[in-house]
Write a structure and sequence with these properties.
Elements (H helix, E strand, L loop, with lengths): L2 H15 L12 H14 L7 H18 L2 E2 L10 E5 L5 E2 L2 E6 L14 H9 L1 H14 L8 E5 L7 E6 L9 H20 L4 E4 L11 H16 L7 E6 L2 H10 L1
Parallel strand pairs: 1-3, 2-8, 4-6, 4-7, 7-8
Antiparallel strand pairs: 5-6
Length: 256
């Protein structure tokens, strides 16, 4: 199969899963097909699917990521010892683990084609990721607490693992508790990385998007928490601060 054939196969299989969608026509355009496929993956509940689907999905997602271009951590230059600042798509970075800014349900964003990092990571990793996260939450028996983290495989992403953490949601005045919880996100991820003998971790800007944590204060907490942690004996030798916005690149550049 080529990419077009894989995409149409995946769309057909997902449409057939749900009576509500079975009569939906597949659009002719490539962009529209990609949007529909991602949307169907986003709304799909965590449940198993056949091996053939996963085989085709994995081949499709890996080729899509390769087409975007994979960034090797070894090709990046540190801004200070062991610390990197990189503006780019975190789902294309090859390192030991990337960090996902998750919600308390921990099974991804269910809003079709939403631009949050949680949606992007689940969309490009594959539907296996949501199944894994759901199993973890079922075993835990309650929603994930703010400031804590879980680890999963990365499936079709170039990194090896994903560290999922729940940042604080800011609805009014920023408090000391909020700041402590955000610091906890960074520590929890790094502790999990050490527990799994990982050597490199890439952090997104936790809580600064949909959760409305002030960008400058969030960056200060991120940098100070990571620096303090790396002063100890740890397996983690390289940490990437991944930014999307020019504003965050300027803030982190100044802090680092």
């Amino acid at each position: 199969m080529n990419q077009k054939e894989r995409r149409k196969y995946l769309i057909r299989e997902l449409l057939q899963e749900n009576v509500q969608y079975r009569n939906m026509e597949i659009p002719a355009g490539e962009a529209e097909q990609k949007q529909l496929l991602r949307g169907l993956m986003n709304v799909r509940p965590p449940k198993r699917i056949g091996r053939e689907f996963l085989k085709v999905q994995d081949a499709y997602l890996q080729e899509e990521t390769a087409a975007k271009g994979i960034t090797e951590l070894d090709d990046l230059e540190p801004i200070s010892e062991g610390l990197y600042l990189w503006q780019g798509d975190i789902t294309t970075l090859r390192c030991d683990a990337i960090v996902n800014a998750a919600n308390s349900g921990m099974t991804g964003c269910y809003v079709p084609n939403h631009r949050c990092i949680d949606n992007c990571i689940h969309s490009f990793s594959g539907i296996q990721l949501r199944v894994d996260c759901a199993k973890i939450m079922q075993m835990q028996g309650h929603e994930e607490k703010t400031g804590k983290a879980k680890i999963t495989k990365a499936y079709n992403l170039p990194c090896r693992y994903i560290l999922h953490t729940v940042g604080p949601i800011i609805g009014g005045t920023l408090t000391k508790t909020d700041c402590g919880l955000l610091a906890g996100c960074y520590r929890s991820c790094l502790e999990l990385a050490v527990k799994n003998d990982l050597k490199s971790v890439a952090f997104c800007c936790i809580s600064t998007g949909e959760f409305h944590f002030p960008n400058d204060k969030a960056a200060q907490i991120a940098v100070s928490t990571v620096r303090e942690f790396m002063q100890k004996e740890t397996s983690v030798k390289r940490v990437v601060f991944n930014v999307f916005k020019d504003l965050d690149e300027e803030i982190y550049g100044r802090l680092l």
